[in-house]
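G., before I forget:
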Amino acid sequence: MPIQYYLFLSMALFCIGIAGTLMRRNAIIIFMCIELMLNAVNLLLVAFSKMWHDASAQIVVFFIMVVAAAEVAVGLAIIVLMYRKVHSVDINILNRLKH
Amino acid sequence: MKAIIAATILGVIMMFSSILMKDKKAIITIAALLLAVLLGVNIWDVMATKKGSNFTFLFNNMILISREGLWFNMLMTGCTFLYVLLSGKDIARVGTHTAEYFALIFFILTGVYLLSSYNNLLILFIGIEILSIPQYILAGSDKKNLKSSEAALKYFLMGAFTTGILMMGVTLLYGSTGTFELTRMDFIHQSSVNGMSLAGIIFLIIAFGFKVSAAPMHTWTPDVYDGAPTPFTAFMATIVKSAAFYAFIRLFQNTFGGISNHWTIVLSIITALTLFIGNLTAVFQQSVKRMLAYSSIAQAGFMLFAILSNNAVASQGIIIYAVAYSVATIGMFAVLMKLKDYTYDGFNGLAKKEPVLAFVTTIFLLSLAGIPLTGGFMAKYFVLQAAIMQGQLFWLVIFALLMAAISAYYYFRVIIAMYFKQGNPELHEPLSSGDKFMLALTCVLVVLIGIAPQLFLASI
Amino acid sequence: MNFLLLAAEQNTPFNYLPIALQLLIAVGFVGIMMGATHLLGPKRRTKDKLINFESGIPSVGNARQPMSVKYFLVAILFVLFDVEVIFFYPYAVNFRELGQEGFLAVLMFVGFFLCGFIYILKKGALKWED
């Protein structure tokens, strides 16, 4: 299969992720959209890895997955911290800092 | 190289010290001692490489050790040491997990060292993540304060979003070159540039723009810097930002330097916007902490000149700028932490009550504004000179000077409040002689950078 | 390094036979198990048998109650420790080629890992009861 197919697919996924991040108001859904962006990158990396006959991109995929897991741990903890205070994960509530 | 390992191990030691010890004073002492050890390791690293020597590659070319990078590491570790000595007590006051805060600072330093020595885009990614993830935690460390949690959530969402964009840039570069190794990426010839690699470079500019808070990717900065506990804001705005800038300049000067005609125009628009938005918005702030957040955006605008100008003076300039800006800002935040009220009115009449505090604040602010004889002047001189040498950025230099004049307004407002207004500023606790000594030392450093900047570049 | 590419080199449908077999066995096992318990188990459909079973006492309150934070903490730690195992896959595949140096590197990785584990143990993150 030509590389363009993979490029278009992962670019589409990436754009869905960006659009979701910018438009949704629920922190969890924003977070899921960010994960979608990272997974689009992973898909593209694997496709490029096959194209260049070089496995190093697949190792990078592993690293992205692990770092994403670390981010999930910290991020969910922060979201839970927020939820316990305001009983909502809607980011429209986050405007106290703007005087 | 030794410093990377040492920082990791010392961070783990710091983490475990919370189990063995409960006393906050003892933990601060241990943190300062371990940082001194780390500084020693850094100096050892610098000494071990000969002056003017070439690069050393480590770990299958993943890491490139250069004397300049080691020198930058050493200066940043020195700034962290100064920061812990100045505001260790304030860090302990944020919450109950004092040892963990220091451990996270050590881990952030590991990220700084990786960012000054990466030769592989994977290491760049890991370095940026090691730099960022502890910061999300530090921003939210004041768990009782809703503003702090808000800042953490906002910072986290923006940071994770940036990670996605950064990785997309890295992937597109890999797709067009077939390697993650920077020294193997062949961007010297214009013919090797194609649409995919240009898209990758644009993604990287956006991602770095988020990390160094350049406009229009700066919107998170004021909220996060304002909401995060003040001691950690000081750290985020100085050492972390400098490290991100150093990574930025390493990538764009060494790897993409040959094709600068493709990205200079994008970056110069970003620079102009950053200078404009940072300075103009800072004028209208009522809180000094928020003003400093906008001022950090404005200073980022000046640091962007170093990346734009793409020559040898620029790489010296970024080091001088990083040190001068870090020392002055750390000092300024240390003063802010002593006060209870962060508005301009909170500074009214400080000169009468605490003349020493008012004097050092004046020096820090003069340095941030870039008045001669202070570090800030020399820093701005270096980066603007580099931009003039580049040849095509004259309009931007004029614009930057205009903006520097505006910046004097909001910095001097604090000085006027301290010296010419009546009031009774409240302090958290009276200044101890140790505090005074440290503030004076910081002040001396600021002036030293202004008088003898070559001392801070001597050994590259 | 290109261990993953080696497998993909002879790209014929025949290569997917083991995967198909695996799928068949997995689905078959689940199907047989569920069907067998359904057929073999004794059935006595009385009213008492069909109500929700909660240790013999009548069910109380709503099922959607806030979960304890302890559970959340364990879940987060599981995510962290679970994903780190991913690094063992490339090591396991290249176990022989990497030799002594690779072994030491993995040992160091596990060592840091263990540090984190000891830390959360000492901090009492895994203590289930208060």
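The mean pLDDT of chain A is 89. The two ends of chain A are 54 Å apart (CA to CA).

More on Monday.
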